[in-house]
Amino acid sequence: MGISVLITGGIGFLGTFIVEATREQHPEWNITVLDLHLPKIPKPDISYEVGDVTDLASVTGIVDKTKPNVIIHTAGLVPELAGRYGREQRNRVFNINVNGTRNMLAAAKNAGVRAFVWTGSCCAVVDDMRYQYPNIDERWPTSSHSLIYGESKTAAEALVLSANDEKFSTCALRPSVLFGPGDHQLVPSVHACIAKGETPFVIGDGDNLWDVTYVGNIADAHVLAVENLLSSTKTAAGEAIFISNEQPITFRDFCLAVWREFGHIPPYEFHIPLSIASFAGYVAEWVTWFTGTPTTLSRGGVLDACAVRYCTGEKARKLLGYRPRIGIEEGIKISCKYMAVDGPKEYAQRLKLQNANEPKP
Amino acid sequence: MGVKATDVLYYAVHFGELRNIIQWQTWHDPVHNRDPEKESPSLRVCFEFLDKTSRSFSSVIQELHPELLVPIALFYLILRGLDTIEDDMTISLQEKDPLLRNFYKNVEKEGWNYNGNGPDEKDRVLLVQFQNVTEEFRKIKPEYRDIIKDIAKKMGNGMADYCAKAEQNGIAVDTVEDYDLYCHYVAGLVGNGLTRLFVESGLANKALLQRPHLQESMGLFLQKTNIIRDIKEDFDDKRRFWPKEIWSKHVEKFEDLFDPKNKEAALNCSSDMVLNSLNHADQCLFYLAGLKEQSVFNFAAIPQSMAIATLELVFRNPAIFQKNVKITKGEACRIMMQSTQNLQKVCEIFRQYARKIHKKNTPRDPNFLKISIACGKIEQFIESIFPSQDPKVIAAAQSAAKLAAPPPANEAEAKSAAQAEEAKWDTIYLLLAVFGTLFVISSLMIGVAVYFGARFDVAFNQLKQGQFGKPSDAASIIEKYDHGEL
């Protein structure tokens, strides 16, 4: 019996890489992509279905029709930076991330799907900004009082893991902040700091370590998780697993490495103490409230910039046999080259569309 | 010890460092002390050699547990003897080769010594009077003797191979692999020998024997760091240990490193070397976790802490190509004080210097990101053995918060919770508005009354005195208050 895989959100940034990794490592599998629209350039050996995960009837119809054995549910919404710290987008984020997942689980269980791999996020744990997260593992609790994105991932993860049973194996992957070619958030907004003259400023001591993961490695982890759930041992069934590049670095150094790829080295370095930055963020929030135009700075952004967030990665190694194939340095080179080839025009257009500088997965 | 005027000036400004020196010299209490009274004359001679040949190791060796004191002192002198033969360029290869390869046999021969060293060789006298070492060596436990002989044999052979290669090709350390091999012979083997001695004496965890790469790292981290620091001195003595594979990425000829014109390239080359050394650091900490006895821990930890401090000192420091740089005595004393306590203190030293290296790191350096990742790896390792967070505490705090305010389980609940929240704030705003209005109006009324001459101060005092009724003679009371003191 052949394996058929349904990948939701398969046209998105991470989804594209998951489709690619699945096809590359299992050319014998049938792949169907479920997304809100069709891709501009469809791939010949992949089927496409247009559907909306927030609509139960729509996804049930597609799952019943395509009869997959495996579902990789990666469709989700990451609020842009301006919305990350507020609660305005809560319902929209919850609808897509939580209801969407609930619908996919119901449709999958109903259709007798064997394996369900879901793209969660480390934010389920680390968005609770009251704590720092050095070298964490899966013993750390998820938080239901953090930021809307983290809360949505916590709620959806609970649904995914509790749906796991003998016949229906589920697994939640929690990737860190991710980057790669085609990423609209991280590398472009880091690059944008050059034009804005923001590169010399460092908030806090700049010693705080982060996990930043190359998108292709996260895609690999998804394929490994599918393989695990289809195996006889199914050790990853019902488990949540952090996925990282296993190379914690300071976020400042990640930015410096990106800027260097574009030939920019900050002429000097200016450290802004956390307390002053935090106060400035507070003032900026009031300015935003008063004028209605969002500023780059906010207290949440300051806390994000000074956060310590990296995991041990041990569970992924042990259960999935996961090792990042692409190191951060190579990943940055690939991503920046892609941006340069993309041409400054398209890039400038993107910049207008966003004013973010530290997006989350 | 002579005191230089520059030193006086330095410590006058760096008072904290001077304090470290005084603290170390007054307060440091050795775990064990050797007792020269009970020692044979030849053993006393051995300890004199130890003092002469090594300033840095001598004191830590002399504070070792009595069980290991003599074996390790002799081990050191035997290796120093080998080194003195290998280093001496006045000895021909024909003579040197068998000397090195058979050295492990000679250490047991009664009365063996060697006077073939050139007159300028600084440790010449050690070999001339080596019979003192052989005499003491024959007295130690056969188990220790076998370990030391085994290492001396391997090291002698490795050194002989290296000397032959150096004579043949001119360059002995070509690839990074050659570099690792050379460091293995002169330092990695020492790590192995010491580990076996520690375990044999029962003063270290047996599991260390199962981890040869940790033992290797202990030696390589020290050796590689010294090789970086001594670049100028070695170059002047016509020795080259930096592998061609690394320096050829940055300069054309090895000599170019010392030309101030090539400062940037030389610095980048040195950070390439620092990166190579830095990658051993976390394994050294891992190794130290296996040492139980305090004096053995101190003996192993002090040189490692010194090495990470030295690595920070030489990192992106152009002075290494001009002169021999050294950590100051004040810094050394502080490091020794911290390293003779426990693993956590040693980890703090490592984290502190890793962060200093990270601060000096610059994107101008081709190895910028690799160095950053290596520093991150050290921090992560320290966090793994001494976690700064406890997930149970966070989980407990969260479940306490959940009890106080149950989280919205689904959309409907969330909505009602949000509505409740909104209603709460509505009430608060309403109350604020009511009290605000009351406050403003009362203030206005009181203000107007005062303006027209109302005496609230008098009224308050009357109230205090318990006169709630209408005063009989208001004017006289007011009079009393206004001119009471007169």
UniProtKB/TrEMBL annotation, chain A:
Q: Does the keyword S-adenosyl-L-methionine apply?
A: no
Q: Which organism is it from?
A: Cladonia borealis
Q: What is this protein called?
A: 3-beta hydroxysteroid dehydrogenase/isomerase domain-containing protein
Where does the UniProt annotation place the signal sequence?
A: none
Gene Ontology molecular function terms on file: oxidoreductase activity, acting on the CH-OH group of donors, NAD or NADP as acceptor
Q: Which GO terms describe its biological process?
A: steroid biosynthetic process
Q: Which UniProt keywords apply?
A: Oxidoreductase
Indicate the family of this protein: Belongs to the 3-beta-HSD family.
Automatic annotation (TrEMBL), chain B:
What residues form the membrane-spanning segments?
428-454
- Name the enzyme group at the top EC level: transferase
SUPFAM superfamilies, alphabetically? Answer: Terpenoid synthases
What are the BP-aspect GO terms? ergosterol biosynthetic process; farnesyl diphosphate metabolic process
Question: Where does the record say this protein resides?
Answer: Membrane
Enzyme Commission identifier(s): 2.5.1.21
* Catalysis: reaction(s): 2 (2E,6E)-farnesyl diphosphate + NADH + H(+) = squalene + 2 diphosphate + NAD(+); 2 (2E,6E)-farnesyl diphosphate + NADPH + H(+) = squalene + 2 diphosphate + NADP(+)
GO cellular component terms, alphabetically, are: endoplasmic reticulum membrane
Q: Name one Pfam family in it.
A: SQS_PSY
Give the range the annotation lists for the signal sequence: none
GO terms for MF = D-glucose transmembrane transporter activity; squalene synthase [NAD(P)H] activity
* Origin: domain of life: Eukaryota
- Required cofactor(s): Mg(2+)
Q: Which family, according to the similarity comment?
A: Belongs to the phytoene/squalene synthase family.
Q: What does this protein do?
A: Catalyzes the condensation of 2 farnesyl pyrophosphate (FPP) moieties to form squalene.
Q: What is this protein called?
A: Squalene synthase
Query: Could you tell me which species this protein originates from?
Result: Cladonia borealis
